[in-house]
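TL;DR need structure tokens for one chain.
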Amino acid sequence: MATNTTTSNDPSMCIHYLVIFPLMYLSLSPAGAFHKFLASNKTWHKNTASNHPDLFPSLAKGQAPPLLWLGCSDSRCPETTLCGAQPGDIFVHRNIANVVSPHDMSCQSVIYFAINALKVSHVVVCGHTSCGGVAAALGNGKIGGTLDAWLYPLRELRAGLAKTEEGWDGLGDKEKALKLVEANDKRGVGVVRRNPEVVKAVEERGV
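>> reply
TL;DR here they are.
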């Protein structure tokens, strides 16, 4: 295991520490890209510490984000960038195709922690256009690995839309994908609203 570390006691280093597993990055991406990101991280840290001198010391003391973001893992949809936010502003859970399921322990654990420990005031369920997971869910072909099981709820939702949406068969793939994204977000919002911790938080403090 290789590490990019610092021995400084400066609390501003809390986000600068990186732990890297060489076998993973060598097999999954060009080494040039990896080193570029390391250099960019150092530049980002330097600029951020200069432009926002109180940010890192504040984050070193803990987090108090007002918002929980449930979104897609797609690299084109980074919530902090899209919202013009800073580190510490948004608590995040992301997965393939933004599937919010009451049976997903990872997602439900994030919701529990966000509501009960962080006391967030808002929960956002965010899908996006041109989603690869949604595109795959429009068909029934085998994808491979765990993705077939993961996307099953989306395929089930698509099958329901095919029965209830007037003119579904006449829509193009882009139109179908958009409707599936919207339906998936609505279902996700429903799952969040029925979460016992969220229900309690809405009643007690108006989340």
